[in-house]
Design brief:
The protein has 448 residues and is an alpha/beta fold. 38% of the residues lie in helices and 17% in strands. The strands form four sheets. The protein has a six-stranded parallel beta sheet with strand order 4-1-5-6-7-8, with helices on both faces. It has a six-stranded parallel beta sheet with strand order 9-12-13-14-15-16. The longest helix is centred in the C-terminal third of the chain and has 16 residues, at 406-421. It binds cobalamin and iron/sulfur cluster. Iron/sulfur cluster is lined by residues 193, 195-197, 200, 202, 236-237, 265, 289.
Length: 448
């Protein structure tokens, strides 16, 4: 088994793209790096193929096993990758995993061609899964890991398997205006969320687990050594890390000269906490999963927060010199013309960065069940691919459960996008050489 080659594939994604400069934001394939570590320790030859980077599957010599990951709007791209593997390497085995597979296997099982699928965290089972498929196990076998990684079992991500500098040289996302360039756009230090917002299907279960401090130091030191000036933590809620770990992270950031942003719920953020963290002078922005400023919407989505709390955290952040940013979902249930205007007013007056997307029904949520009353599973998956771009191009909302018309939601979305421009800074330092690749992606995206 030791001479076997495993290629881990991440599908490409369209997140923030600077069409004028022909550059795109870049995201480290973190999940695949955590899978690589046990595979390398078991003696396998491991390669990462990141299609967002312009990697071509054909550049990777034939592998014995391909592991393929994806997000819920990558169905079409996963399908293309799987077909390509089956065509060019018919004897190779395919293992699927990742957030999309974890919430949608029930529907993907009949639609995608694979040998084995892993539901949940992959690092504790990937070696045995690979050995099983190499020994001939097939037939779409499913392994459910039940959120198996315990704090003590967290391994280091195999950062040596990627060119970190490439990930640093992408377009500085508009939301990164508070952070110095270059930025690592995604680091996750914790797993699990005990809440139950009904639009969400985070893949790590309800039990919170936080990485050991030593692992965190390794990750931050590696990125700083590669030239990062800032990092964006993507934990669902940074409060879950606990104050001891948070202080360790803040001290490490200060020692390494890194600045940072993190995500938080509004109800968990106290004045005392902000006072403590602001003493380290490294946190420049906090992003809040606000979704909507309609209390009716928030209640319908079981978000468990109030409009007053949202307004409160904006003031708190300003008090401590930290920029607040909002994640907004366009088209939430019960959204009205008046709540849209309230949201836009607050964002404009308080100068809050609005990161926005149309509400996407995620498989296994009540919205997905409802979406499937209107479309077939294949239609629903295909529509999700390029979700925002396709709706803007079609000037049609694919899933409108708000109390306003499609036209009003499209107008709301474009007004939020325009407000983002107020934060835009001219960056001359990012790579603009991705022309061939970008035009290829953009061509594909407009043809979707
Ligand atoms: C960072 C992040 C992003 C980054 C992308 C980072 C990246 N390189 O993938 C950005 C900002 C681009 C992003 C965008 C989106 N995201 Co996002 N994102 C996250 C976030 C916050 C962390 C993901 C992460 O890095 N986790 C850490 C790594 C270690 O975990 P992991 O990748 O899941 O990998 C583990 C397992 O999944 C598994 N695994 C992964 N791959 C494979 C492959 C194999 C073969 C195997 C065996 C196992 C396996 O093992 C890994 C180790 O345990 C999660 C929230 C969360 N709690 O997960 C949301 C999340 C994944 N995103 C989500 C969504 C919906 C989106 C968007 C579709 C939002 C939108 N409407 O536009 C877009 C899609 C972008 C696109 N495709 O064009 C949802 C997905 C829901 C679901 N269950 O599928 C999540 C869970 C947020 C949520 N709570 O709803 N996202
Ligand atoms: S939206 Fe955030 S707080 Fe709500 S369940 Fe998902 S990860 Fe947890």
């Amino acid at each position: 088994m030791k001479d076997k080659k495993i290629v881990l594939v991440s599908c490409n994604m369209f997140v923030d793209i600077d069409h004028a400069a022909k550059s795109e934001s870049r995201f480290v394939p973190e999940g695949l790096l955590y899978l690589s570590t046990p595979l390398l320790a078991a003696g396998f030859d491991v390669e990462i193929c990141d299609l967002a980077k312009g990697d071509d599957l054909s550049q990777h010599a034939a592998a014995d096993v391909y592991g393929v990951t994806g997000l819920p709007n990558q169905y079409t791209r996963m399908q293309v990758v799987i077909r390509e593997i089956r065509r060019s390497h018919p004897r190779a085995k395919i293992i699927l995993g990742g957030p999309f597979v974890t919430c949608a296997l029930e529907w993907l099982r009949d639609l995608l061609d694979f040998d084995m699928a892993v539901v949940g965290e992959g690092e504790s089972v990937i070696v045995s899964a690979v050995i099983d498929v190499l020994n001939g196990v097939s037939g779409k076998k499913v392994i459910a890991t039940n959120h198996a990684v315990k704090t003590a079992d967290f391994c280091h991500p195999a950062l040596e398997k990627i060119d970190i500098r490439w990930y640093l040289n992408g377009w500085h996302r508009p939301i990164n205006y508070s952070l110095p360039y270059p930025t690592i756009n995604n680091i996750v230090l914790s797993r699990g969320c005990p809440r139950s917002c009904n639009f969400c299907r985070q893949p790590f279960g309800k039990r919170i687990r936080v990485m050991p401090k030593e692992n965190i130091s390794y990750i931050l030191e590696s990125y700083a050594r590669a030239g990062a000036k800032s990092v964006r933590f993507q934990d669902d809620n940074w409060q879950y890390l606990g104050i001891e770990t948070i202080k360790h992270v803040l001290q490490k950031l200060a020692d390494l000269g890194l600045q940072a942003a993190f995500n938080s719920r509004v109800d968990d953020l106290s004045d005392k906490f902000l006072r403590e963290i602001s003493q380290f002078n490294v946190i420049k922005q906090i992003c809040f999963g606000v979704e909507s400023l309609s209390q009716q919407s928030l209640d319908a989505m079981k978000k468990g927060i109030s409009v007053e709390e949202i307004k409160r955290v904006v003031g708190l952040c300003r008090k401590y010199g930290i920029d607040p940013a909002f994640f907004i979902m366009v088209g939430t249930p019960n959204e009205t013309s008046s709540s849209i205007e309230t949201t836009l007013d607050l964002i404009e007056v308080e100068k809050v960065f609005p990161q926005c997307t149309f509400l996407l029904p995620i498989p296994s949520t009540i919205y997905w069940e409802d979406f499937l009353k209107r479309y077939s599973v294949i239609e629903a998956f295909s529509m999700s691919d390029g979700w925002d771009v396709r709706q803007s191009e079609a000037q049609k909302i694919f899933y409108n459960i708000s109390d306003v018309s499609d036209r009003e939601l499209l107008d709301y979305y474009s007004r939020l996008k325009k407000l983002q421009n107020n934060f835009r800074k001219e960056e001359e330092c990012y790579e603009k050489t991705g022309f061939g690749f970008m035009s290829q992606i953009l061509g594909k995206s407009s043809g979707l």
